[in-house]
Amino acid sequence: TRRSSDLFALLLLITAPLRSAVLDWNWVPTGSMLPTIFEHDLVLVNKLSYDLKVPFTTSHLALWGNPNRGDIVVFLSPQDSGLRLVKHVVGLPGDTVQLDREKLRINGRVQPCAKVQDETPLEAGVPRGVTHVVSRELLGTRSHYILTLPDRPALRSFGPVVVPQGQYFMMGDSRDDSRDSRYFGPVARDRIVGRALCVLLSIDTQHWMLPRPHRFAQPLDPIGDQ
Length: 226
What we know:
Elements: H1 2-21, E1 23-27, E2 41-46, E3 51-53, E4 60-63, E5 72-76, E6 84-91, E7 96-100, E8 103-106, E9 109-110, E10 113-115, E11 133-139, E12 142-148, E13 158-162, E14 167-171, H2 181-184, E15 187-188, E16 192-204, E17 210-211, E18 218-219
C-alpha cells in the first residue's frame, strides 16, 4: 500500500545515514580472522570510534582519535574500493613491521607468542581435518589469539617494511589464510571505516545454516581489554 511504502521510505531515510556514519554491521564471508571472528559472523562496527564522517563519503567532519595497535577495524580494500575487510591493526605510522617465519616483529622486537594448550574453545570455526595451531600473541600490552596452518603454503616471512605516515599495517588472525597488508600494503587512514565491537549473530553454513548461539553478542576486545 501507499502508506506502507511511505513508512519504508521514511525508515530508509533515517537508518541509511546512521549506518553510513554511526553504527553499521557487516557479514564476514571468510575465515581470515579465525579464531577471533568466525566465517559468517555478523559484526557490529562503531563508525564513531575515531571520527565523524559525512554520510556516504570518507570525508571527515571531525577527528578525535586514530586506531591503536591491537584494534580490530573494518576498512575499504586498497585493491577494491567496494570491498570491506576486517583485520587487526598491527603496525602504526612509522613502525617497522616484519614477519620472520611466523614470528611478528614490530620495530625489531619479536612480539611474544605462545601456543595455547587447550584449543577446544577456540577451534570451533576451523574446518574439520585441517591441521592448525592456536597461539596467543601479545601486541604491546594487548594480546589476542592467532591461527596458523602448518600444512598450507603461505607467506610466513615478510619485510621488514616501514609503515608510511598516515597509514596502518593490517593483518588477519588466521596468518596463513589472510590477504592483508603483506599483499596489498599499508592502509590509508581515510579508508578505515570504524572499529569492530562485537559479534551480533553467527550462522554455521557447514551445518544447515544453523545459528551459533554461543557466538551471539561475543565481544571482540583484545584479551587484555576484557
